[in-house]
UniProtKB/TrEMBL annotation:
Domain NADPH-dependent FMN reductase-like, first and last residues per copy: 7-111
UniProt key word Nuclease: no
Name of the protein this chain belongs to: NAD(P)H-dependent oxidoreductase
SUPFAM superfamilies: Flavoproteins
Pfam families per UniProt: FMN_red
Keywords, in A-Z order: Flavoprotein, FMN
Entry keyword annotation includes Flavoprotein: yes
Amino acid sequence: MSSRNFLFVLGSSRSDGNTEILARAAAEQLPPDVGQRWIDLAAHPLPDFEDLRHDSDHVRPEGDDVALLLDATLAATDIVIASPLYWYSVSASTKRYLDYWSGWLRTPGVDFKATLAGRALWGVTALAHEEEVVADPLVGTLRNSAAYMGMRFGGVLLGNGSKPGDVRKDEAALVRAKTFFSQEAPLASFPYEP
């Protein structure tokens, strides 16, 4: 029995978009005993993040979408951020989810950073550019977040597609999807570290 549990966080404003199609193609390759949980941020919208880092009234959320995402994040051995490339980075809903990590670092009884340390962060994105280098800011956001948290980083699966379903024509991306989650996810480090 596998002890791996994947959380797929869908950050698109539309369902069944190119990024989700690519993420599901990669997830189909996971062994059947690997847990999969999919949470669509459009269906579970988080309120605007309020930075309370210098306040003392942090409490663990209960019974709302914030609690749902916190609990799912803590339960995951592998977190997959599936966000389309919007203005060269993650979508607004994805960024808001990552902003909440800042608050969860200070939530009593959660031990968020220590819990995620050693776990794996992955990315999947579809972009409407032939030049994959334009996704570097998105990749950097995820890699640096993983490095800060002491997580492993499996990289970002990139696919090309603008109109709905376009990514199905990107044969190279679909080939990469077949082995994406089977590759090693090394410990993340900031770019300026040796």
